């Protein structure tokens, strides 16, 4: 059995259909169908049966899925281990929320480069939900996310606590509108929680993909947002913004460092842990 066939089979099983799996794999439906057919021919059994417009696993398919997940997990772990071990573990893929990327990650990488001069970091900025998925699927080695996170496959370390504040334009009345990151952002969830629990009027919703885009729109009166205090204080729009405190059930959000339990804790990971010590408001040491 080829790995590409097992990856395709796993996607079809989890997505429940050929079309959805093809989109996830960035390929055409005919390729997915062909790989499944060849796998069924190789094993001499049907792996899926029709259910409405979708597919469901047969009993042999359920058994294969258990093994496929283990095989693909080992394949991902092997790739991580080899890549991290190469040249003294000089390469690392780090993910972070955009707010952490803007305010803390540059200094963190600078401290890390001092202990690992040959380091080749690759940085991905995304929402917490996207970063969780990327770590769990071994697309990145570790990430800084908004918590609290509790997952059996993840090692989670408290880094700092962020204080969210209500951000408004400084010189104009804001529109009744929340200006937020896209779905998957914990700060977005907090803003919607604040709107439900602490506001009498309903707010419209605008989604933007960048930190300064959101704050820039708020500065122009397009609405309000919730953002970490230090992010607002460092923003290029600071002179055109004002902010006010929020209730504790909304305002306090932990920032956490996560990595997969199966990711080898080699030299560069240990060096990253050491570099975390300079961060402000640490809840506990590494």
Automatic annotation (TrEMBL):
Q: Name one GO molecular function term.
A: DNA-binding transcription factor activity
SUPFAM superfamilies in alphabetical order: Periplasmic binding protein-like II, Winged helix' DNA-binding domain
Gene3D superfamilies cross-referenced by the UniProt entry = Periplasmic binding protein-like II, Winged helix-like DNA-binding domain superfamily/Winged helix DNA-binding domain
Keyword GTP-binding assigned to the entry: answer is no
- State the family it belongs to: Belongs to the LysR transcriptional regulatory family.
Q: Which species is this UniProt entry from? A: Amphritea atlantica
Quick check: keyword Protein biosynthesis in the entry? no
Upper lineage is: Bacteria, Pseudomonadati, Pseudomonadota, Gammaproteobacteria, Oceanospirillales
> Taking every annotated instance into account, which residue ranges of this chain make up the domain HTH lysR-type?
1-58
Q: Which keywords has UniProt assigned to this entry? A: DNA-binding, Transcription, Transcription regulation
Q: Which Pfam families match?
A: HTH_1, LysR_substrate
The entry's protein name is DNA-binding transcriptional regulator, LysR family
């Amino acid at each position: 059995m080829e790995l590409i066939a097992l990856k395709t089979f796993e996607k079809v099983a989890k997505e429940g259909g050929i079309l959805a799996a093809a989109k996830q794999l960035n390929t055409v439906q005919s390729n997915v169908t062909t790989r499944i057919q060849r796998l069924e021919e190789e094993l001499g059994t049907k792996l899926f049966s029709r259910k409405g417009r979708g597919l469901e696993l047969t009993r042999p398919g359920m058994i294969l899925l258990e093994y496929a997940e283990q095989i693909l997990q080992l394949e991902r772990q092997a790739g991580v281990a080899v890549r991290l071990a190469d040249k003294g573990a000089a390469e690392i893929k780090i993910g972070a929320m955009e707010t952490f990327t803007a305010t803390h990650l540059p200094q963190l990488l600078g401290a890390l480069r001092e202990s690992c001069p040959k380091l080749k970091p690759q940085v991905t900025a995304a929402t917490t939900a996207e970063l969780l998925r990327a770590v769990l699927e071994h697309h990145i080695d570790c990430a800084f996310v908004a918590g609290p996170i509790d997952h059996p496959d993840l090692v989670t370390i408290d880094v700092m606590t962020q204080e969210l504040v209500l951000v408004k334009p400084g010189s104009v009345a804001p529109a009744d509108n929340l200006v937020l990151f896209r779905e998957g952002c914990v700060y977005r969830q907090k803003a919607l929680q604040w709107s439900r629990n602490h506001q009498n009027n309903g707010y419209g919703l605008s989604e933007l993909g960048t930190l300064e885009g959101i704050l820039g729109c708020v500065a122009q009166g397009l609405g309000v947002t919730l953002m970490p205090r230090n992010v607002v204080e460092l923003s290029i729009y600071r002179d055109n913004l004002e902010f006010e405190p929020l209730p504790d059930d909304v305002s306090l959000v932990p920032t956490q460092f996560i990595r997969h339990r199966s990711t080898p804790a080699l030299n560069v990971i240990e060096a990253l842990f050491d570099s975390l010590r300079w961060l402000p408001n640490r809840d506990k040491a590494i």
